[in-house]
Amino acid sequence: MDILTALLGGFAEAITLTNLMYCFLGVALGTFIGVLPGLGAMIGISLLLPVTYYLEPHSAIIMLAGIYYGGEFGGSIASILINVPGTPSSAVTCIDGNQMTKKGRAAVALFVTAIASFIGGSIGIVLMTLFSPLIADFALSFKSEDYFAVMLLGLVASASVARGSALKGLVAVLLGVLVGTVGTDVSTGVQRFTLGFPELVTGVNLVILAMGIFGLAEVVSSAGNTLPPSGDQHVRMRDMLPTRDEARRSTGPVARGSALGSLLGALPGAGPTLSAFLAYSFEKRLSREPEKFGTGIVEGVAAPESANNSAAQTAFIPTLTLGIPGTATMALILGALMIHGIPPGPKLMTEHADLFWTLVASFWIGNLFLLILNIPLVTIWVRLLKIPYRLLFPSIICFICVGVYSVSLNPFDIFLVIAIGLLGYGMRVAGYEAAPFLMGFILGPLMEEYLRRALLLGRGDVTVLVQSPVAAVCLAITSLMLLWPLVGEHVRRLRVGFPRP
After folding, report:
1. Are 231 and 385 within 8 A, CB to CB?
2. Using CA atoms, how far apart are residues 308 and 274, in angstroms rounded to an integer?
3. 318 close to 133: Cβ distance less than 8 angstroms
4. Which distant-in-sequence residues (6+ apart) come within 8 Å of 104 by Cβ?
5. Spatial CB neighbours of 398, under 8 Å, sequence gap ≥ 6
């Protein structure tokens, strides 16, 4: 009853005209910024952070939060339409979403994205409302070895995202880990694989890598096309709706993706990107026809979109209740709270309970705004496909260059994204998927950091990695995933050698 009373009080504050206006402004700006390759919510929040000095704390945080989860939704639009992830967490949506576009079903993919995002976000908000203290305590109980084991599991699972050979998937993951080691070693301060370039001392930026490995590689591989994939498509409401079979097949992935994203979003350092990749990998493992993933099926869109949007909501749990920002974007929101004299942490839910519950209520309103705003916009987004490639591709390259340059205002980044784009094109030609590569790049450095910390605390004893129940279970699952293809191949050969009578 106390939670319900507090939530009703939050709604009473959130539905004031001022807060509604800033909530709508936030999700609208987040959506449009998320669509632009290379920008994303973090750039939008950075640009608007000075504006919040002149706003009331409730309105300021509501607007910044709206930009954040609006950007997560907007990033999937560019992924589906032009195979350029607007945000890193929407990179996995490229795999099946863009294939649906090439089949002339972009409107269906965008509609499923809107519904899955709304459901995933709603489930994340429910869990945040009911279990914020519990989830925060669970996240706080994670040790270094637990994080290492979870991330190792994520890396091995991401290899299954690739179509075809699992070995090629693992090679792509390892290549991503290798690129992730470029820069300065956080433990020793030694520069690794910088090739003498001072710009690489801080490593390769995630935005640059995602834009190059997906966006620029897509432009190069499609340079010979002269017509857009679905230039004559006239979108009506019934054209957006998935078939009954697709709606039925989407139910499970949305539910599982939302649950997985809600849990991982509450873990500092995990967030929407890891949630989306693991949700996609999990659905491919569960599927009776895993070979269809990557060919443009609705499950490959519904699972990651529900996961990253639910994770975007529960990512506020460690930020607000523990004062631990899980991502750089959350760190900006944490800074906005401190600007207004609100210290995040365990006391926020008691000393500033009105702000917490107003923010939670605004999440419901913001997700509803996203649904109302983006379903009518499907027609406008699909019209982008009518632009001829000779005009569309230069525009994409321009957006990519502007996006990567805006990260650090360094011309070197433009040359770097070109090099990474050529690497991505070479991987495509050789049959290696970009998604596992990106996952290895994201999780590799974090996994290394947590492994070192665990061994340091364990005085070099490697058995510390299996002493925690969470770590032991994750490592056992990882071992099974690595051994299963070998066991399956052995069983298949036995069946061939000893056919049934």
Report:
1. yes
2. 8
3. no
4. 229, 230, 233
5. none
Residue with token string 């070479």: 426
Q: Return the residue matching tokens 């070979």.
A: 291
Tell me if 300 sits within 8 A of 294, measured CB to CB: yes
What was the pLDDT predicted at 96?
A: 86
- State yes or no: pLDDT of 198 exceeds 70: yes
Terminal C-alpha separation, the chain:
65
Q: Report the C-alpha gap between 462 and 455 in whole angstroms.
A: 7
Answer for the pair 403, 207: CB distance below 8 angstroms, yes or no: yes
Helix (H) or strand (E) holding 473: helix 469-497
Read off φ and ψ for residue 427, nearest 5 degrees. -65, -40
Contact of 201 with 231, CB cutoff 8 Å? no
Neighbours of 198 (CB within 10 A): 9
Whether residue 401 contacts residue 411, with contact meaning beta carbons closer than 8 Å, is answered with no
Alpha helices by DSSP H, listed for 141-289, are 144-158, 166-180, 206-210, 217-221, 237-240, 244-265, 271-286
Contacts of 274 (CB under 8 A, 6+ apart): 151, 154, 264, 311, 442, 443
How far is Cα 149 from Cα 389, in angstroms, rounded to an integer? 44
Owner of token pair 């990651």: 304
Residues linked to residue 191 through DSSP beta bridges, in sequence order = 184
Q: Nearest-CA neighbor of 148 among 260, 259, 269?
A: 269
User: Which SS3 state, helix, strand or coil, does residue 183 take?
Assistant: strand
Q: Quick one: angle between helices 244-265 and 271-286, nearest 10?
A: 140
- Whether the Cβ atoms of residue 308 and residue 79 lie closer than 8 Å to each other: no
CA angle (317, 323, 325) in 5-degree steps: 70
Classify 268 as helix, strand or coil: coil
Question: What stretches of 191-267 show up as alpha helix (H) in DSSP?
Answer: 206-210, 217-221, 237-240, 244-265
Residue 344 to residue 108: CA distance in whole angstroms: 41
The structure tokens 């009911």 sit at 130
Region 294-309 average pLDDT: 86
Evaluate if residue 113 carries a pLDDT over 80. Answer: yes
Give the pLDDT confidence of 345-372 residue by residue, as tens digits: 666 766 777 888 888 888 888 888 888 8
Q: Is the dihedral of CA 409, 81, 308, 74 positive or negative?
A: positive
To which residue do tokens 């949700």 refer?
A: 279
Q: Cα(139)–Cα(427) distance, rounded to whole angstroms?
A: 37
Separation CA 170–CA 341 (nearest Å):
47
Distances (CA, A) of 217 to 56, 396, 426, 427: 44, 11, 8, 9
Determine which of 264-278, 287-301, 466-480 has the lowest per-residue pLDDT on average: 264-278
Provide the percentage of residues in the chain whose pLDDT is more than 90. 0
